[in-house]
Amino acid sequence: MNTIFKKPWLIIIFIVAMTGFFSWQLPKIQINNEVQIFLPENHISRVTKDRLEDIFGSTDAMAIGIKSKTTSIITIKNLELINNLIKDLENINNVEDVTGLTNTDFIEGTPEGMQVGEIAKEIPKTESELNTVKEKLLSWKIYKGNLYSDDLKSTQILIKLKKGLAIEDKEKIYYDIKDVLNKYNNPTIDYYVAGTPVITVLMGEYMRQDMSRLIPFVVLVVILSLYLSFKNLGGVLLPLITVLVSTIWTIGLMAMLNINLTMVSTVIPVLLVAVGSAYGIHIISHYYDDLKKEKSALSEAKHRELVVETVHKVGKPVFLAGVTTIAGFASLATSSIVPIKHFGIFTAVGVLVALIVAVLLIPALLLVRHNSLKVSSDEDDNDGLITKILIGFYHYFGRKIVRVLFLSLVIIVVSIIGMSKIIVDGPLIEMFKPSSEIRVSDKYLSSTFNGTTVLDVLVEGENKGDLTNPEILKEMDNLKDFLKHNYSQVGEVTSFADFLKRMNQVMNYPQEEEEIAYDNTTSDSNLDDGFADSSFSDDSSFSDNSFDDSSFGNDNSFADDSFNDNSFNEDNSFASDSSVEETATTENKTPKLKTANDVIKVINNAILHADKLNLTAEELVEVINKELNYKGASYDEIPYDPEKYMATNRDELKNLISQYLLLYSGSLDDYINDQLEPSKARMIIQLKTGSNIYTKKIEKAIKDYAKANFPEGYTVNVAGHADMSSAVNDLIVSSQIMSIISSLVIVFIIVALSYKSLVAGIYGIIPLTISLLINFGLMGYFGIKLDLGTAMVASIAIGIGVDYTIHFLATYNYERKRSDDLEIVTKNTLVTSGKAIIFNAISVAAGFAVLLFSNFVPLVNLGLLISITMITSSAASMTVLPALLNLFKPKFISK
User: Fold this and answer.
1) What distances in angstroms separate CA 137 from CA 53, 140, 143, 477, 619, one per listed residue?
2) Mind giving me the DSSP string for 697-765?
3) CA dihedral 238, 241, 246, 248 (to 10 degrees)
4) At CB < 8 A and 24+ separation, what contacts does 6-12 make?
5) Greatest Cα pair distance in the chain
6) Is the four-CA dihedral 395, 401, 404, 407 of positive or negative sign?
7) Average predicted confidence (pLDDT) for the chain
8) What is the Cβ-side half-sphere exposure of residue 774, based on CA atoms within 13 angstroms?
9) DSSP labels for 549-585?
10) Letter string b/e over residues 830-842, b meaning 16 or more CB atoms within 10 A of that residue's CB
11) Residue 478, CB half-sphere, CA atoms under 13 Å: how many?
12) How far lies 524's CA from each of 605, 625, 641, in Å?
């Protein structure tokens, strides 16, 4: 020590130079929170997502919700607004495609076959033209929940981003979108912007807000706690310099190595400021204790001797505390979640720097400025108060071993019960506070439309054209129905099959109307579903040629003269003079209903063929349409039955599907890999929840269904942002278990080696284990989820909390050598090391409490739990540990 501190100025100059170098690196730091960077590059979810994008292009999309406060969204004025918005959004750089209410593709039947065009090539100018657009929207279910809401007051614009964009490009797109929306600001219109790219962009923005606000805040909190602890300028500045230096070195090193800052690593500066002060606190605390014992002014030589002696005396516990803290953080390097791995590595580096700077820089500064460091009388008063508190603490707990152990046992049991209630789930959207703009937007879009969370399913055949096989297409469609009927949070499932069903429908529009009386015995083969145009007018009321005006009175009831007694036969059917002679039906033609009985028969037979009885009005219209083949509604299906399509086998139906693809002029690039002979298809599942637990259930259901029902020769994989988020969630538990075990084992080994006793290692981890159990118990009881933030609590708690145990053991060991009176040993240990433990715990807890003001829910929970853990681990080291030492009197402690 004398050799090291012979030239203190060299130490100071070296550390200042290194700090300047790392400060120069700081502007290079990058922020990135994209889901894929949380997974290892070779993780199956990341690999599958990359493969999906290689086949189908970018899966990144933003959604804009547009809500009309006063009228339907489908008005001439609103469609004009939407159309202008779409045009402006299409001009934003790096936007690949924009789809909205006016420009989406619409497939319709024509006398020549099939036609694909924009749903509104020109904005309607009359109510009649507007009704045509509305009729088109309502005629294809694929639009429902994507382009219009149930109440017709909201719509969505979907913005597809180009593939492979950097986070900076996505930020530019988001803020350009906000500028466009501001341009069309309207008091009667609300806008909502959401989607996975929006989440990642806003996480970066909120991180910047956190760092600009929380780092100065935590510095002020640490300054206040240091001042209250020491009431001395030196006691404030010296530990503070240590933490500032370690923070600059750590973040500068991350920037130099191109390691991105994520939401997780936002904690690093706060943690280093809060934790790094501990080593300086212990050195300064012991230095002032020794300084107060000196009755006269110290010479430079005597002062050097005092500083060196302080470092020598405190060196071992400070070194052990530093090494175990480093081990606790470094245990997070075993995590498979990349940002948590980086967090563990660089916090360990930061603590190592703080330890080295505290042991070298603080003594060097003390040696250089020794004449200016004095102990105030306020500090003596403060010491007296702390001493009284510690003595009271000793009398209540230190002398009551049974009380301490019984309370500890009760706390352990209650905590274990609480642990069983923990929920492991960390949806990305739930990282934001409920009042945040993105959370409000996501909630509105998920509840109003089909959902903002997207899970992709990749279906692959073995050969070209395998995805035109009716067998696989039928099962893909059945999978859609299975998911929607069994999982309430599945908003919609869209695939190539939906487009084929529409093509099949428009290619089978009825050729002409048949004026026949309806007969339900022929409905299945000849009258397949639907009302003819002449049966209902555009407003869905009965048309003039269904019943004439005289059939109804002024109040819309049947008029007195509409039917006379002779109108009915004895069996209540229409008499022969009022009915129509039955004629043979023609294949694929829509019947023209002539009598009231025809209508009643259609409705009854439609209900008979329905899958359920409690039909909504919309579902009733749908089944009636199918019953009468209105606009080909009975052909809204995958061509599967050879007899119905006059084919000899399904190979011919496969050829029919290929012909449809040949005729289709739109783009199916988002759904199949080849426009004519697809071998791969993508199913897009929209979920109304971001819950990873729910996503996991859906994924299992998909795989189980495919295994049981899909034909041989096809493979099914799930992919996309929801799958990667679910994969991260799965890794949280395994990473948590691994990091806890590894950090406890490392602490055990270090303490055991330090005291050359395995028993010492056990004593070293007991207080930590109790504080961890309390932490997890509180999480269970208060519904705090185990997520990316709270998954770090255990390792941080072990890394920091072990300091209290080590310092208590070191002082107890020192006092035990001087006396065999355990009461005196315990009391002296509490009064001496207890003061530094309390100072340290208050400083760290107050520092982490700053995270309560973070923009992110996981970080708020992290700050709360770490602050509580500092209290519980310091309390356990001053109660449970001395109780066990005094009860069992282990040999290692008195050596």
Assistant:
1) 29, 6, 6, 21, 16
2) HHHHHHHHHHHHHSPTT-EEEEESHHHHHHHHHHHHHHHHHHHHHHHHHHHHHHHHHHHT-HHHHHHHH
3) 180
4) 8/363, 8/364, 8/365, 8/367, 8/368, 9/364, 9/368, 11/360, 11/361, 11/364, 12/361, 12/364, 12/365, 12/368
5) 131
6) negative
7) 84
8) 26
9) GGGB-TTSSBPTTT--GGGB-TTSSBPTTTS------
10) bbbbbbbbbbbbb
11) 13
12) 10, 13, 13
Select from 746, 769, 751, 771 the least CA-distant residue to 761.
Answer: 751
Q: Is the dihedral of CA 720, 726, 730, 736 positive or negative?
A: positive
3-state SS of 747-792?
A: HHHHHHHHHCCHHHHHHHHHHHHHHHHHHHHHHHHCCCCECCCHHH
pLDDT at 564: 40
Neighbouring C-alpha atoms within 13 Å toward the C-beta of 563 = 18
d(C-alpha 872, C-alpha 804), whole Å: 11
Helices then strands, counting H and E runs in the chain, come out as: 25, 12
End-to-end CA distance of the chain: 25
Query: Does the pLDDT value for residue 268 go beyond 60?
Result: yes
In terms of phi and psi (left: phi > 0; alpha: psi -120 to 50; beta: otherwise), the region of 195 is: left
Q: 664 vs 464, 598, 723, CA distance in Å? A: 18, 37, 32
Cβ(86)–Cβ(156) under 8 Å? no
Using an 8 Å Cβ cutoff, are 94 and 161 in contact? yes
Residues in the chain: 895
Token representation of residue 320: 């052990």
Rounded CA Rg of the chain:
37
Collapse the DSSP code of 336 into the 3-class scheme (helix H, G, I; strand E, B; otherwise coil) and give the result: coil
Nearest to 245 by CA among 283, 219, 221: 219
Q: What is the pLDDT of residue 515?
A: 44
pLDDT tens string 676-721:
999 999 999 999 999 999 999 999 999 999 999 999 999 999 999 9
CA dist 428 to 35, 168, 857, Å? 9, 19, 10
Residue type, 627: E
Handedness of CA 379, 385, 389, 392 (dihedral sign): positive
